Amino acid sequence: MINSIIKNRKVKNFLIIIFWLIVWEIFFLIVNEPLFLASPLATVKSIFALLKKSESWKILFYTSGKMLLGYFAALILGVSAAWFASKFLFIEDLLKPLVVLTKSIPVASFIVLALAWFSSVNVSIFICFLVVFPTVYFSILAAIRRVDIKLLQMCQVFGVSSSKKVRFIFMPEIADELCEVVKITVGMGIRSSIAAELIGLPNNSIGGELYQAKLYLAMDDLFAWTIFAVVLCYVIEKVMIAIFTKIKSVVQKA
Amino acid sequence: MIKVDEVSKSFEQPVLKNVSFSVNDGDIMLISGKSGAGKTTLLNILMGILNPDSGNIIGMPTKKSAVFQEDRLLDNMDYFSNMHLTCNQSDEELLAEFKVLLPNEDPQKKMKEFSGGMRRRVCILRAMLCSSDVLFLDEPFKGLDEKTKIVTMNYVLSKRNGRTLFLVTHDKDEIAAFCPNKNYLITAEEN
Questions:
Q1: Domain check: are A105 and A78 in the same one?
Q2: Which residues of B touch A155 (CB under 8 A)?
Q3: Which pLDDT score, from 0 to 100, does residue A73 have?
Q4: Which residues constitute the domain of residue A79?
Q5: Buried-most residue among A22, A45, A122, A235 (CB within 10 A)?
């Protein structure tokens, strides 16, 4: 019977969460110092207390909104750049040093640099863009290159138009890859946006709230905002995957 | 008239050496020969997928359709999407043709769920229903059982509509059906 309960995926996930909450509670009891580690109960209380404040919703809205702005800019420009790079080798060569450099420079350097260029309010948009763009670019370029040359030859023989090739051959490949890219990059985007906020300290930001929590040693608030960031990441990832899957099926059936 | 003039092609070794022939519009040209003799290479050059090292092809129509040796279908899409890529027929017309060659199958299943023989028939439908002036069929009935092969061969003959046809085959039944007098046979054995 226990085996059949565990085989149910939802029950299994619930049990896994309970297990880690118990581990957390045990650590809390061992540390026994709320200034270093918040208890699960205190964190839940803090979450509900924050959810009651309209200010918290505003913070969630601003942080996720700015992150999404940077994220969509990275998706659109990343896919476009990959498309042109796949068609013109010189564009790939031209972009390569820039993208490789962007990928390897520490995010903190960019944040400090961006703070000199923009107001702290917009830094998280720019940082999210910089962190996500290289992964989108390289993944989509690889996906375009993976398209079966034999299918393209078939299109050449049948005289298939470029728009049909994009719709039936490239779009499904790109949409599939975007679903995978989203799984990797949404978390990257949220983490880097919040890191930028933590350094830039704009008003109405999760990063700013984390800084406040650290300043006042309010570990329950710090844990609560961290959980908000995790939930935000999960929701955005699921919504994005649903959007790309829908786009793929609509394009194919249109 | 399509004229092939002194066409040669080498990869690591020479595959085609100074191949010349001509085909009148609407004729059937059979290309036969042992494996590795260069039949598919010749077909790929005629289709424009490969460039010859030397020689010319004159008078090749621009509107072509083909059954390749491999299926070259969109595996994650259904019959209709595969056909819409190359053809302009309505779903109703496409369904009617599908039912001729695959009467008991579901056209909305993804191609990867189709067996080899079913996929082959979809390739044949794609080539025959596409608006073209010349057809290239590279071992089109490979993998079909005898009964299905006869039905499919008759379908190809009925849907050819006077288009020039290049057919690669080893099969005696196919040669008999498409070129009963062997008037148009190129034996690619000697290149």
A1: yes
A2: 85-86
A3: 96
A4: 40-253
A5: A122
Check residue A96 and give its pLDDT. Answer: 92
Judged by a CB distance cut-off of 8 A, whether residue A13 touches chain B is no
Whole-number pLDDT of residue A253? 64
Bridge partners of B66, per DSSP, are: B136
Q: How many domains is chain A partitioned into structurally?
A: 2
Residues A244, A203: one domain?
A: yes
* Model confidence pLDDT, tens digit, residues A132-153: 999 999 999 999 999 999 999 9
Closest-approach residue (CA) in chain B for A170? B74
Q: Do A157 and B136 touch (CB under 8 A)?
A: yes
With a cut of 50, which residues of chain B have pLDDT below it?
190-191
Cβ–Cβ gap A160/B74 under 8 Å:
no
A101 alpha carbon, distance to own chain's centre: 21
Residues A241 and A185 in one domain: yes
Please tell me the distance from the alpha carbon of residue B139 to that of residue B31, in angstroms, as a whole number: 10
Give the count of Cβ contacts less than 8 A between chain A and B.
Answer: 49
Q: Does the ipTM surpass 0.85?
A: yes
> What's the confidence (pLDDT) of residue B188?
59
Instruction: Please indicate whether, in this complex, the C-beta atoms of B65 and A153 are within 8 angstroms of each other.
Output: no
Is A149 at the interface with chain B, CB within 8 A? no
Report the residue of chain A nearest B81, measured CA to CA. Answer: A252
Do A201 and A117 fall within a single domain?
yes
The whole-angstrom distance between B90's CA and the closest CA on chain A is 13
The pLDDT score that the predictor gives to residue A165 is 93
- Is A155 an interface residue toward B (CB < 8 Å)? yes
B85:A160 CB<8 A: yes
What's the pTM value of the predicted model, to 2 decimals? 0.82
- What pLDDT shows up at residue B191? 42
